[in-house]
Amino acid sequence: MSKRTYDQPTCGLAAALDMLGERWTLLIVRELLLGPQRYSDLQNALPGVGTNLLADRLHHLDRIGVIERRQIGRAHV
User: Fold this and answer.
1) Which tens digit of pLDDT belongs to each residue from 45-68?
2) 42, 30 in Cβ contact below 8 A?
3) Is there a contact between 37 and 51 (Cβ–Cβ < 8 Å)?
4) Is residue 53 packed enough to be buried (19+ CB in 10 Å), middle (13-18) or exposed (0-12)?
């Protein structure tokens, strides 16, 4: 299956949607705008998103420079 595109290279909005408009992607970005999140936090905040799909979307967002993966501190129990 090929990736769908709006094929409107002169339109900034269409270009942004080509990069971010896939299912779940904008909801993932919404959650990350709240601050650093662990993978499990994202899974809990987005019930229904499959783990493979979440991993794929995060990898895509990292690859295109929308997000940056960082280590965050571990909670002490």
Assistant:
1) 999 999 999 999 999 999 999 999
2) no
3) no
4) middle
